[in-house]
Amino acid sequence: MNHGCNEFGHMMMSRRTALRVSAFGLAGILQNPWGGALANSPDTGSTDTGNGSTNEDRRGKPRAKSVIFLHQYGGPSHIDTFDMKPNAPDGIRGEFQCISSAVPGSPVCEYLPRWGAQLDRWAQIRSVHHDMKNHNPACYYSLTGKRPPTDDIRLRDTLELYPAYGSSIAKFLKGFNGVPSFIAYPHILRDGAVSPGQHASFLGKQCDPYFFQADPNSSDFALPELQLPSNVDLSRLERRRDLVQWIDREAKLIEKSADARGLDALQEQALQILSSTSLRDAIDLSREETSLRDAYGRNTYGQSCLLARRLVEAGARCVTVYFSQSIGGKGSDGWDTHQENFKDLRERLLPATDQTVPTLISDLESRGLLDDTLVLWMGEFGRSPNIGDRDGKGRGHWPDCYTVMMAGGGVRGGAIHGLSDPKGAFPARDPVGPEDIAATLYWALGIDPHAEVADTQGRPLPISTGEPIRSIFS
C-alpha cells in the first residue's frame, strides 16, 4: 500500500481493496491464536440503566456487573481443600489436617489459612457432578455449561459446540470505555488437542475473547497490538474507516452479507479500543503499588489475578484467568495431581492459591468492587477420594462430586449448597450440574439464563438449560 496517496482518491475501488486500505487491517489488532479476530460484542440484549448496571441492586435480585472466572485446569482436589473428610478411612482422607475457618463447622485444609479466614465471603457448592472423565470434554463442560457429545479426549472445537461463558456474556452485555467485554489469558487450555469452549463458536468472531498469552509477571509485559504504528495516527485511521463505511453504504453490502456485518463490527471495536486509553492503562501493572503486587504474588497467577481486577475496574464484563500450562505427568503446572498429589498441593498449588485468591477478594472489597463482581473458582472436575493413582500417592480424575466456590456479586457469604457423602465420592443432597453453574453465572449478571441465541443454521438455542442456585445469594 502507498501511504502517501490521498485516502479518498479512489472511490470506485473494490470492497476487498478498500478493506486493505482501511486498516492494516483494523481487525488485525484483535487476531487470536486460533486465527480468528478477538473483540467484544455489540450490545444486543442489554438494558443498561446508564450507570453501568443492567440489574436491580436489591435483596434477592441479581446485581453483578462483571465476573472474574478463575479456571483451575486439571481438577483441584475437593477432598484436600474445602470438603475434607477427617473421619474417612486412611486411604481416603489424605495427609492434610483440618483447621477451623471463618464459617463455623466448615473447616478447610491446613495449607489454606488465609482463605479459611476469609471463607465467610464465599459460598461453597459441594455437590457439583457430571460424567466426563477426560480433560478436554470436562473442560468444555466447565467452560460452557453444556454437556459435550462424547467423553473423548480427542474432542475438537466445531461450530456445533457451544460458546464460552464470556462469549455468551459478550452477546448480551458490552464492555465500557472501549474495553472488550470478554478478555481471557494467559494460557490456551489443551490436553493434546486444544480444549473446546474457549471462544465464541457459532456466536461469531465478534464475541470471541480478547485473548493474549503474554505473561503479566514478565518485566516487559505489554500488548504491542494496542499501539498504532508510528506512521499512522488515530485521525488517519478514522478517515480510512469513513472510507469503508461510505463504500458499504453505496453497495449496501452490510445488509446483504453476514461476513461484512461481522467485519464491520470488528473494525468498529478495534477503533474503540485504539481510541480509548482504558485498556492500555489497565494492562499497565506498573501503575500499581509494589506492595500490592507483592501481596498478589510475583508469579504468573498472582499478577494475572491482579490484572483481572484492573480489567473489570476498567470496564470488562468477563475476565477469565486460566491456571495451567500443561496437563499430566510429574511436575505439571496445572491441578492434574495423578502423581504426588500431596506434595504438589503442599509445595506448589495451595500456597500460591492461598496467597493470591484471598488478596484478590480483599482488593476488590477495599475498592468497593466486590458487591458488583462475581468471582468464580473451579476446575473441570475434582479428584478421586481413593488415594493411590499412578505412583501410589496421587488422586485420579473425579467428576462424580466436587466443589465450586463463588464470592461477590451478591453471593451470601458462608453459604453452603449441597452435601457430599462421607467419602466425598457422590452428592448426598441437592446435586447440581455444570448447567446450573452456567445458569447461576448468567442470572447473577442479570442475563436470562434461558435466553436464546441462534446457531449457524438460525436455530434458537438457550444459553443454559440449568437453573440458578439462588439460595447462595442474599
Describe the structure.
This protein has 13 helices and 18 strands. The chain is an alpha/beta fold and 474 residues long. It has one domain: Alkaline Phosphatase, subunit A. Strands 8-5-9-1-10-13-4-14 form an eight-stranded mixed sheet, with helices on both faces. A two-stranded antiparallel ribbon has the order 2-3. The chain is globular, with a radius of gyration of 23 Å. It starts with 14 loop residues before the first helix and ends in a 12-residue tail after the last strand.
Sum this structure up briefly.
The protein has 474 residues and is an alpha/beta fold. It contains 13 helices and 18 strands.
Supply the key terms:
globular; alpha/beta; two-stranded antiparallel ribbon; disordered N terminus; eight-stranded mixed sheet; 13 helices; Alkaline Phosphatase, subunit A; 474 residues
Low-confidence runs (pLDDT<50, min 5 residues)?
Answer: 1-59, 327-331
CATH architecture: 3-Layer(aba) Sandwich
**Tally of domains:** 1
Helix fraction bin: 25-40%
Sheet with the most strands: spatial strand order: 8-5-9-1-10-13-4-14
Write the CATH fold name: Alkaline Phosphatase, subunit A
- For the record, what is the CATH homologous superfamily label? Alkaline Phosphatase, subunit A
Number of helices: 13
Radius of gyration: 23 Å
- CATH class reads Alpha Beta
Shape: globular
What is the end-to-end distance? 59 Å
Structural class: alpha/beta
User: Main β-sheet, in a few words?
Assistant: 8 strands, mixed
Strand content: 5-15%
Please tell me the overall pLDDT.
84
Number of strands: 18
